[in-house]
Each structure stands twice: as C-alpha cells, then as structure tokens.
Amino acid sequence: MVPKLWNETIAAHRHAVRGATMDATAALVAEQGLRSVTMSQIAEETGIGRATLYKYFPDVEAILDAWHQRQITGHLEYLADVRDQAGDAGERLEAVLEAYALISHESHGHHNTELAAFLHRDQQVARAQQQLRHMIRDLLIEAAETGDLRDDVAPDELASYCLHALTAASSLPSKAAVRRLVTVTLAGLRPPR
C-alpha cells in the first residue's frame, strides 16, 4: 500500500507539471502564434520529455483548452470573492461590475485574434458567461428589492445590458476610463426619476 503522503506528493507533482505546461504553452503561443507552436517546443520549454508531455495532453489544442478553462475558473472564483467581500447588494453589484470590467480590460492585450477565435469557440465560454450573467442578475434582484436599482426592467435583461456595456472595457485606454464606464453603466441601472 502506498502511503497517503506519497500519493499527495505525486498529485501535487502532476498538478505542477500540468500548470507549468499550460503556462509555457500560453507564453509560446503569445510569442509565436497558435499554429507555430509544437509539442516538442512545449516539452523543451517546460523541461520535460515529449513522451511525458503526451501522458498529460494529446496536443497543443488540448493544452490551450485546459489553460483557458483554468483562466475562466480563476476569473469566476475571483468575481465570487469580490462579491462576497463587499457590503450591501448595491456595493456588491458595483464591485463585481468593476472587477469584471477590469478583467476584460487587462485580458484584451493578452489574446491575439487567432488565439481568441480558437479559445472562444466552445461551450466552456458560454457556460462561464451564463454563470456570470446569473451572478449579476441575482445581485440586480437584491439591489432592486432595496429600491437602489430600477425594477421596471427584467433582471435578466439588465444583466445582459451590463455585460454588453462592459465589453467596451477591453478597448479603453486606461483603468480610469474603465471605472468611468462602470459608473455610466451603474447610472443606467438607477430608478428613473
């Protein structure tokens, strides 16, 4: 029987190898382009043998899919943490919208067009967007119940409005501009006079 500590050490090692492989692949693709990166380059950059690399991933696309899933999961966890650390419903909504807009702003420069098209082709992005839309919708419902936000538009519609409005953050020149966009978006959520 293998001791528990040994199993934990092996699991941690495998996790570290997967993480290093994903990071190396993302860096190589950013540097050379999606179609130029090979498994041999990734193995060399990661410091493992090609045979070992193939035990973890069948090809470059699988590595990028895993990397992207890790990014998405990390962003959603971060947004949940931001939501949980803020005060009342209105403050939580504002904090989540600002954090999302800043993520969008910062991520924009990291993807070239070819890579973005590859990464956004599948269901994992749609599922993440749905989770985010639900998080924002729930905050909108809470804030509307306190009278801080309008209740004359369906929460799902307002959540879509917020997400679409904040996609503009990816093309803004500064974090200050992103914060102004969030302020304008929030103004559209206030009850009509």
Notable traits:
single chain; elongated; 9 helices; mainly alpha; Arc Repressor Mutant, subunit A; 0% strand; 193 residues; Tetracycline Repressor, domain 2; 2 domains
Structure description:
The chain is an all-alpha fold. It has two domains: 58 residues, Orthogonal Bundle (Arc Repressor Mutant, subunit A), CATH 1.10.10.60; 134 residues, Tetracycline Repressor, domain 2. It is 75% helix and 0% strand. Helix 2 packs across helix 3, helix 4 packs antiparallel against helix 5 and helix 8 packs antiparallel against helix 9. The longest helix is centred in the N-terminal third of the chain and has 29 residues. The chain is elongated. The termini are far apart. The mean pLDDT is 87.
What structural class should be given to the helix and strand makeup? mainly alpha
Shape: elongated
**Cα end-to-end separation:** 71 Å
| Whole-number tally of structural domains | 2
What does the oligomeric state look like here? single chain
Counting DSSP H or I runs of 4 or more residues, the number of helices is 9
Output the radius of gyration.
20 Å
Instruction: Describe the largest sheet.
Output: none
CATH T-level fold name of the largest domain = Tetracycline Repressor, domain 2
Strand content bin: under 5%
Layout of SSEs?
Layout: H1 4-32, H2 39-46, H3 50-56, H4 60-85, H5 89-108, H6 113-119, H7 123-145, H8 155-166, H9 175-187
Helix pairs in contact: 1-2, 1-4, 2-3, 4-5, 4-7, 5-7, 5-9, 7-8, 8-9
